[in-house]
Amino acid sequence: ATRLRVSHAFHSPLMEPVLAEFTEQARRVVYRRPVVAAVSTMTGAPLAGEEWTSPEYWAEQIVRPVRFHDALTAAGAARWLEVGPDPVLTGLADGPAAAVLREGRSEPYTLLTALAELYVRGTAVDWAALFDGTGAHRVDLPTYPFQHHRYWLADHARPVARTGDESADGGFWELVDRGDAASLAGELGVENGAPLDAVLPVLSDWRRRRREESVLAGWRYRVGWRPVRVPGTGSLSGSWLLAAGDGTDDAETARAAEALRAAGAEVTIVTGPSDGGAARPAGVLSLLTDPADVLRLLQAWPETRVWCVTRGVVAVSADEAPAHPEQAAVWGLGRAVALEQPDRWGGLIDLPAVPEPRSWQRLAAVLAADGADEDQLAIRPTGVHAARLVRDGDGRSQRSWSPAGTVLVTGATGALGGHIARWLAARGAERLVLLSRRGADAPGASGLAAELAASGAEVSFVACDVTDREALASVVAAYAPTAVVHAAGVLDDGLAADLTPERLARVLAVKADAAQHLHELTADQPLDAFVLFSSVTGVLGNAGQAAYAAANARLDALAQHRRGLGLPATSVAWGPWDGAGMAADETVAEHFRRQGVRPLDPARAVAALQRALDEDVTCTTVADVDWARFAAASAYTRRPLLRGLPEATPAVRTVAEPVAAGGGALAARLHGRPAAEQDRLLLDLVLDQVAAVLGHATATAVDPARAFKDLGFDSLTGVALRHRLAAATGLRLSATLVFDHPTPTALAAHLRGELLGSTADEPERDGAAFTPVGAGEDPVVIVGMGCRFPGGVDSPEELWEL
Distance (Å, rounded) from C-alpha 82 to C-alpha 93? Predict the structure, then answer.
């Protein structure tokens, strides 16, 4: 039983006091006999005509229980279509079900989607009637496959998948078809009866704005939650490690251990990250809430499947808010690790802030079912829910937000901060307080100050370390801002296996800890906006950016937490901005391009921010993604999060199935063939995967003798290649694969040795074979690859002195 959150007791005798008045109202309705068979959910039996047309029957629905299961059984149908304001019943149907309406989505889109779902499940559809009058007609399919290759980037104004009206101009042409001149004039903002030469410029501007709105809507996404079924018959086996920390309640740890043991596991409890010295367990369940502790745990057990549990981090429903937003950093960290190490990652599970005993039982069932093919789950009293990325471009403006008074902007003197400051000044901000580490001494600050002053805004540059709470408190007290925009952040990229807690803490401090300071310091002030610049990495994850993903996931959770407190908050998880932020780092920008994530035009990004504030949204993701390319680049790992996007389904369906451990299937294919043919097959495999990672149309674009570094590989693309080859061969391969075997030919030779157990000769350079060199014999040793200097230094000179 689930306690309903309503103010009245529908379908129970407690509704008796309103029955007479409701019956009187029901008698005012005209009833007619149905033309299709109907089944009563009050009796569970087919309806007779006199029942359907009786006011008393409908009034009695209020006090009688709902016999939904009996009604479904009596109907005896194989497919179900729900007609109602939101799909609350289709999940209860035993069989294929579709709903014609969904909250937050346009009716034409959801109706046609439901029609398509029923069609592919065997329902006859009169397509000719659907397309009648549209000009659509049948065409012959080509008898050979087209092989067009396009090398130019698509224009930003290309048509995008729409979730609102199927055309940006749909409403306009509907008014034209109706011949409603007055309404059409109101839509365009001109006087009724205005001459054509006056209407045409307005119409052109209206169409341009509609197209722009359509593009921006195509960039918007959000994370939603859908219920999933987890089999309750599974069991755990072997030894499981249960990692708890200082922030973990002992009673909760005991309940988790009890649930795992009841499911069949042998449980060993460790406090904090283990040193990894014990025998390898069957699985690791982490209750650790500090992302640094989770990082140490992942590094201590590199060969073991790890699941991370948080409490009160995600908002599954609209009336829920994260109780512990600081734990969201674990989710960001996990989303990145899932892409870097998919073969050992389990998933993320969020429990209620105060878990019930049933929650721990469901947790054990999830682990026994290996996540039921999901890796981001929330367990609530209502059941188990899975995360889905869905489109978020159908919102309606609640206001026209403009800054009033003083706006405090962090990270204000960078390229991204400059765009924000200009936008705020153009929107009428009276005073801008621009914070950065160097303040007015930052490069370009004087030019920005002159530009902003020309707009009439009073500008104050303040040198402040946003990680210093006392310094930040002094600024807030001195300027009393009426709005806050937190855009400060730093990158410290690298694989999670090499990330140190100190590097992780530095990224969290600038992005997440500073946001927490701003939240606490302004909680009692009447702000009209609290804007957090988050990142798509915190939502989708990104190999090599675990620290940045962790920090940004905390921002999104903080925004939802503030809303739960009745405070303003808008967190935008941005894709890369062209020439600013993440995209200013060419390595990161190139990595995004290969994944199909295009840099955002700054002017359009600012327009998207304005729209998010006008709609008063809490969390939204803004990114320009080529999902087909993104799917291909992500084919080495499962990504259930993307199953809510039809255009991204290849990312789910094309995951390479691993072959037997040790590459049995591939090894069997190679055995018995001449050595030259073995080499050719393995080299073809390597070249195909290299081409896929680098985004080439065919493997012929890859020179097998050229070094991976010269082909364009870095640590991030190296990890992607390693995952693809591991999935194709079934081998356990090193994350430094492309650096240990520097050309496709050398890598193919290495794979041959691993698969066939033979020693393949390494390729020669200038007639001499490569020979390993001991560290003591080589005066220069490469200790790592990343976007930073080691040792915490900031320049080559400091590195040389060190």
Answer: 10
Give the amino acid at 768: A
| Per-position b or e across 120-141, b if 16+ CB within 10 A of its CB | eeeeeeeeeeeeeeeeeeeeee
Nearest Cα to 293, choosing from 239, 244, 361, 326? 244
Taking the mean position of all CA atoms in its chain, how far away is CA 360?
Answer: 26
More confident residue, 184 or 644: 644
Hey, what are 651's tokens?
């990312």
Q: What is the rounded distance in angstroms from the CA atom of residue 211 to the CA atom of residue 206?
A: 9
Q: What is the DSSP string of 135-150?
A: T----PPPSS------
Phi, psi of 462 (to 5 degrees): -125, 125
Separation CA 18–CA 11 (nearest Å): 12
Which pLDDT score, from 0 to 100, does residue 683 have?
92
For 179, left (φ over 0), alpha (ψ -120 to 50), or beta?
A: left
Q: Kindly report whether the global pTM for this prediction surpasses the value 0.70.
A: no
Q: Residue 39 gets which letter from DSSP?
A: B
- pLDDT of 275 over the 60 cut: no
Q: Are 416 and 581 in contact (CB under 8 A)?
A: yes
Q: What is the DSSP string of 646-673?
A: GGGTHHHHTPPPP-STTTHHHHHHHTTS
Measured N-to-C along each axis, helices 469-479 and 514-522 cross at an angle, to the nearest 10 degrees, of: 40
pLDDT tens per residue across span 176-233: 555 566 666 766 666 666 664 566 667 767 777 778 888 888 899 999 999 999 887 7
Query: pLDDT tens digits for 552-568?
Result: 999 999 999 999 999 99
Collapsing DSSP to helix, strand or coil, 227 comes out as strand
Closest by CA to 413, choosing from 463, 457, 366, 363, is 463
